[in-house]
Amino acid sequence: MAYSVKVLDHYENPRNVGSFARDEEGVATGMVGAPACGDVMKLQIKVGKGGIIEDAKFKTYGCGSAIASSSLVTEWVKGRTIDQAMDIRNTQIAEELALPPVKIHCSILAEDAIKAAVADYRKKHGEQG
Amino acid sequence: MLKLPIYLDYSATTPVDPRVAEKMIPYLVEKFGNPASRSHSFGWEAEAAVEEAREEVANLVNADPKEIVWTSGATESNNLALKGAAQFYCGKGKHLITVKTEHKAVLDTCRELERQGFAVSYLDVQENGLIDLEAFSSALRPDTILASVMFVNNEIGVIQPIAELGEICRSRGILLHVDAAQATGKVAIDLATLKVDLMSFSAHKTYGPKGIGALYVQRKPRVRLNAQMHGGGHERGFRSGTLPTHQIVGMGEAFRLARLEMGVENERIRMLRDRLLRGVSDIDEVYINGDMEHRVPHNLNLSFAYVEGESLLMAIKDLAVSSGSACTSASLEPSYVLRALGRNDELAHSSIRFTLGRFTTADEVDYATRLLHEKISRLRELSPLWEMVQEGVDLSTVQWAAH
Amino acid sequence: MFAPVYLDHNATTPTDPAVLEAMLPYFSAQFGNASSRHEYGRAARRAIDQARNQVAEAVGAHATEVVFTSGGSEANNLLLKGSAACLRPGLLAVSAAEHPCVLKPAEQLARRGWTLAKLPVDGDGRIDGEHYEAVMARKPKIVSLLLANNETGVIQDLEPLAARARAAGAWFHSDAVQAFGKLPLDFRRLNSAGVHALTLSAHKMGGPKGAAALIVDKRVELEPLIAGGGHERGLRSGTENVAAIVGFGVACRLAVERRSALAAELARLRTQLEDGLLGLGAKLFGAGAQRLPNTVYFAVAGIDGETLVGHLDRAGYAVASGAACSSANPEPSHVLRAMGVDEQLARAAVRVSLGRGNNEEQVAGFLATLKSTVDRLQRLTAMAV
């Protein structure tokens, strides 16, 4: 499997690896995928005043493209409002990382992880999902 | 200085031993004759070399040279054995038996025979990868004509009970074919005592060249086959086509060296393999795939729980290893061999086959051990599954989001 | 000890030193299995890809039309049995002068419901046009004709024959192992004339034994002969013989570079040889047809071919009395019989096939030795009578 330079970079030096305490103020968690499918992504966002995502962390069980996709979205969501984060599309992720067709599902999963984290945030804060 | 990547994939292929290469080269250049040329010294010289090599191959497995038929490799040998015997003996019955953990060369051939109207039973193996003799016996039918069981599994290295299977088959008048591509030079094979009718060999798994293999076709009792490749009637009609002298010479020399050196070599390799196993045994949640007792000393197949297979391979790219068999590793499907052992998809996905060989050193094994420690712990730091397990979550109770 | 002179290049050729050089790394440092995903495997895969391009380029084919096999016999078996397996049995036509590795698979198919038509050849070994037309009118499904005969060197005029077969709706295959490297080959052009597949073999043109190719139009549906792993686009399973394939690729490149000069040189030597043979009163087979520039098939009436080549070998000249593969066969050449040569004369046949490295001096030496051997044998025969 030939990986792009950007995938390799995120794989070798993943950004924002780790976890927030689940009860920490403003933290929401999205967990998507399944071990049997070969990918599980956990994306956490920490939302501050005005609904701005101040920080994000991830852990991913999956191939290099899955790790890179989730690492990339932690960078992209930071500084965005949760609504802006919801605008991130898998095609943008796939394009940025030059994912081959067989790896497009990794970018879809990363988009799903954002949606799941935002949904979790909204659920915790009584908003409509 | 270690040369990276470190080659730990000797079951995929081996380098040609320099002593073997040296013996081959003259047969490309000055002794280049066609062994089928009967009218001049170039041909006779090549033919003599082919016959000498045939003896060496026969010697390793204690067979008669007349029982050795050259082919282009074990895949062709398996095709010839299965299709050739099935087609010849189809009047006696149309049922064959094989095992789910066989190499694709056997499984795909069986599928083809099914399309030709044969019935094939694909037996399960036990959790340790070994065949259950009772299950085997009870799968035999009155119309069973042939069973095909590999000697040594290519992925997990387990050694099947060929002697016992031979007794069972012979007593029932059923032919036994054994794919021994992974066995030569690793386990002692005595065809004078084993009740095996057909056995496939490959040179390139035993430090010989690619492109050459052989099929043992027993003479007493005589086994007959329908040829699959027709032409000039080479190999007593079993297999037509110009014999590649240099490759045959290489296989002969490789098998001669295996016969002389396997005793000492296998103990050395066993020490290295055990050193590797010891080195990684303090990593948590590592599972050995396949029986450790009935296993060739070259093979270690491990599953590293909670890390994903492809990222693991990427992380240890300084080790040339394989996840699943080389022939199927282009696909993302988990190894069918490990699944047949009852391993779940995750553990099958995160399995790595380490196969050691003649040129593996202790330094290389130690490097591999260090690298595995470092990379497994890095990937587990990244793994949400590992985190959950550390927190005491039972993953089997988790409802995973549909994907 | 003097080295014998090799004049049997249609049986096999020495591996060119440049080919050997290119192969050697694939026995040692670059020994990977091309199916492996690691660097050893990828390096092997790249080497095979490059060789595939070289083979394709040498015959004007596309790389995806190249299927590597273990030899020419396997390629011929694959095409005939593989295409037949995808068709309902019907008529199969091959020349009566084919190599056994086409004839025998064809005869096998005849046992499985196919009707086999053996196309007769004329006295010079060319396909007999009238019979050919009659068989084509019966709409064969597969036609296979040797481009250049291994015994006589006689070349068939492939394009019109293929065009006629295509009009009849047949797959048209030609075993080109003897022609490759000696005649220009352009698969695109042949393909547009109606040729669907060609067989090439490395060891007949300066490459190693153990590598060959079927060049095949992708419209031809093929069932593989060897299953298991799905190598070669599923058409030929088994770990690729990387070193031999690499050698084949280089041999193809060299063959293209050298072909016209080599063909001219061989033709010159052949003329020298044939002039000498005619001076000895020898009969030349296929002399009226277009032939490979390197092949001379002759007989000295009354002198047994086997006996003659035995004497020639002891005198230091390696030639053949018939095709190598069937040399164990005591029957006279089926090729000559198909040309209408009587059994007695066919038994006298001797084949000289020239190659790179042969020279005028060797040909002259051969002719002198032949003359003295023939004289001696004729005296012995005369005494026996």
What is the topology?
The complex is a heterotrimer of chains A (129), B (403) and C (385).
Chain A (H helix, E strand, L loop, with lengths): L4 H8 L14 E8 L4 E9 L5 E9 L2 H14 L4 H5 L3 H8 L6 H21 L5
Antiparallel strand pairs in A: 1-2, 2-3
Helix pairs in contact in A: 1-2, 2-5, 4-5
Chain B lengths: L5 E2 L10 H7 L16 H20 L7 E4 L2 H15 L6 E5 L4 H12 L3 E5 L9 H7 L4 E5 L13 H11 L2 E5 L18 E5 L10 E5 L27 H36 L5 E3 L10 E6 L4 H7 L3 E2 L15 H5 L4 H5 L1 E5 L6 H21 L1 H7 L13
Parallel strand pairs in B: 1-11, 3-4, 3-5, 5-6, 6-7
Antiparallel strand pairs in B: 2-8, 7-8, 9-10, 10-12
Helix pairs in contact in B: 1-7, 2-7, 3-4, 7-11
Chain C lengths: L4 E2 L10 H7 L15 H20 L7 E4 L2 H14 L5 E5 L4 H12 L3 E5 L9 H8 L5 E3 L13 H10 L3 E5 L11 H7 L3 E5 L10 E5 L25 H38 L3 E2 L10 E5 L5 H10 L2 E2 L15 H5 L4 H4 L2 E5 L6 H25 L1
Parallel strand pairs in C: 1-11, 3-4, 3-5, 5-6, 6-7
Antiparallel strand pairs in C: 2-8, 7-8, 9-10, 10-12
Helix pairs in contact in C: 1-8, 2-8, 3-4, 8-12
Can you describe this structure?
- The complex is a heterotrimer of chains A (129), B (403) and C (385).
- Chain A is of the alpha+beta class and 129 residues long.
- In chain A, 43% of the residues lie in helices and 20% in strands.
- Chain A has a three-stranded antiparallel beta sheet with strand order 1-2-3.
- The radius of gyration of chain A is 14 Å and the shape is globular.
- Chain B is an alpha/beta fold.
- About 2% of the residues of chain B have low confidence.
- A seven-stranded mixed beta sheet of chain C has the order 2-8-7-6-5-3-4, with helices on both faces. In chain C, strands 9-10-12 form a three-stranded antiparallel beta sheet.
- The longest helix of chain C is centred in the C-terminal third of the chain and has 38 residues.
- Chains in contact: A-B, B-C.
- The interface between A and B is medium-sized, with 30 and 24 residues.
